[in-house]
Amino acid sequence: MLTNTKHSPYAKVSPLDWDAISWTEGLWADVEKTSLGTISHIQNLFESTEISHVVENFHVCAGDHEGEFGGTDFGDGDFYKWLEAYIYSSAKNKDEKAFKEIDGYIDLIARCQLEDGYISTKQIIGERQNNGIKRFNDINDFEVYNFGHLFTTACLYNRITGKKNLLAIAEKAANYLAVMYAENQENGEVQTAVCPSHYMGLVELYRTTGANKYLELAKLTIELRDLVKDGTDDNQDRLPLKKHTKVLGHAVRANYLYAGVSDLYLEQGDSEYKEMLDRVWRNLVDKKIYITGGCGALYNGTSPYGNFFEDSMVHQAYGYEYQLPNVTAYNETCAAIGNVMWAYRMFQIDPKAEYFDIIERTMLNTNLAAMNLTGDKFFYENMLRRTKRLDYELIWPLTRESYISSFCCPPNLARTLIESFEYAYTVSDDSLWIGMYGGNKGKVSLKNGVNFKLEQVTDYPFSGTIALNISEIVGKVAFRINVRVPGWVQKGSLTFNGKIQTLDKNNSSSYVSIVIPANQTEAQLIIDFEMPVRYTIAHPYVEETTNQVAIERGPLVYCLESPDCSLDSLDECMVDISTTFETESLDLCDRGLIGLKGEMLHRKISNYDVSALYQPLQHVTLEKTKVSLVPYFAWDNRGFGEMKIWLPAIYK
């Protein structure tokens, strides 16, 4: 869920209207088309009583059907996330038939809600059937998580349609939470809600309704974290919030938490929260994030910071600094989405290019990789290496699946991708800020009274050439186009009004401001980022990538897959860093992509025993072998095989 911060006092930039921009061509336009099928696919799964039981739970709760609760505890929240995606796609396509169906779903939700505002199908059904299930008995029942996604979807629906039917349900639920948290504050018995989507949801409810009570409730729920007894690193509540210095514990919970605190800061400007957010952000991006933008490296473990002999178990979590395994990389999709939401809010607080560098890296690599090219199969976790066999079993499948038992990620992904155009631009008083690049067009209104149309023509991220055409400028004052120079750029240029401004590594990960004079009615800005293939190395403390390189081009991470290498195992492949890779056109699943082709080295070791843990290194020969590389987001679309991002390197 994106933010509506036009009137937030501490927002230096804010989003355009939801319908201001549309993708027109290229990768993001393809993704948007694919996402329409994803939304339909998920709807079918949610409507199925045999597969997910999600919609059926609402029918049982409303008294339409006989039966029991089925599926996951967070199924309600997953349904709200999917509904958000469906609302967006229906609005973009002006699908009135779909909106009638949406209103039918909203009526179903309303019939489930209790008079006191409480709404969570598992608990309502459980209390009615007297089966021992009751409300707020276990934080891992995800009730407040479900509430939070209800809030954000209701705000979106109101923003797009003006209707208040879903908003009324959300407000009633928020009023229930207000009573509960007031009681918690009075008696000091506080639980930390896991995956706290309600922090963002409550602030957005305040922005939508103007009711200050929801902002104060968001502030209270965040402050009450400090009263939790026997808190854990897994839930980020072992230490008082303002004393956090590292990102730790469950990655989804952490990223949702800091996104919510960022929203609170945007409204109230508590400097101690801002200082904490900056500290934790630096710990993430400097020491704990994957090259793909994935985060949360560990499935299960023990917190590196807490007392080992106490309750310090962590789950789907950040580990030590530089602890970034490849085969077992967890990188839950929801964590990556949470990181995008957090970074986007941090950008609105302080518009630095590094935040959009992370957004773009995460969106183009981990988030797109979490779904196949046809939009109907998904990864829960996002590994950086797949081998032919493992002597142990990972918790999730090694291939994408149409339905996974913990189905929180696909609807989260669907709403994120269908809303991706909102990451293209933000605005301040007199400036347009470029966020994610991609072919698009739309209309812009600045607070200084300037209005104009724009069109971005580009094949980014496969090409670094971008034409920004601005027309029908209305307004009598100058304004600015703030051009984001991504962190990977080492050379390039900006051409405006016949003048060429060169770019070099000193401009990388920064904004360059172009002033459009007051007397112009149209303008064209040509952006050219040179996009050579580059080898990337990791910090020496990242032990699993020692003496290895990753291959990148522009914002994309590339990988080697079995279909593109004739060797028996990718482990036999090495990179001579003096080798030059060339681009090549690919067609995978009817999607036009740009791959890389070149030569690597086939390492042959005499008498090598692939099953030996240790053995003498004998005679080694190196022979050239031709390979191709695909963007990481496009892997696992051609059957089961090996995949590697990090490859052993030879330096001459």
Automatic annotation (TrEMBL):
<keyword id="KW-0378">Hydrolase</keyword>
<feature type="domain" description="Non-reducing end beta-L-arabinofuranosidase-like GH127 catalytic">
    <location>
        <begin position="21"/>
        <end position="417"/>
    </location>
</feature>
<dbReference type="GO" id="GO:0016787">
    <property type="term" value="F:hydrolase activity"/>
</dbReference>
<protein>
    <submittedName>
        <fullName>Glycoside hydrolase family 127 protein</fullName>
    </submittedName>
</protein>
<dbReference type="InterPro" id="IPR049046">
    <property type="entry name" value="Beta-AFase-like_GH127_middle"/>
</dbReference>
<dbReference type="Pfam" id="PF07944">
    <property type="entry name" value="Beta-AFase-like_GH127_cat"/>
</dbReference>
<dbReference type="Pfam" id="PF20736">
    <property type="entry name" value="Glyco_hydro127M"/>
</dbReference>
<feature type="domain" description="Non-reducing end beta-L-arabinofuranosidase-like GH127 C-terminal">
    <location>
        <begin position="533"/>
        <end position="648"/>
    </location>
</feature>
<dbReference type="InterPro" id="IPR049049">
    <property type="entry name" value="Beta-AFase-like_GH127_C"/>
</dbReference>
<dbReference type="GO" id="GO:0005975">
    <property type="term" value="P:carbohydrate metabolic process"/>
</dbReference>
<dbReference type="Pfam" id="PF20737">
    <property type="entry name" value="Glyco_hydro127C"/>
</dbReference>
<dbReference type="InterPro" id="IPR012878">
    <property type="entry name" value="Beta-AFase-like_GH127_cat"/>
</dbReference>
<dbReference type="InterPro" id="IPR049174">
    <property type="entry name" value="Beta-AFase-like"/>
</dbReference>
<dbReference type="InterPro" id="IPR008928">
    <property type="entry name" value="6-hairpin_glycosidase_sf"/>
</dbReference>
<feature type="domain" description="Non-reducing end beta-L-arabinofuranosidase-like GH127 middle">
    <location>
        <begin position="432"/>
        <end position="517"/>
    </location>
</feature>
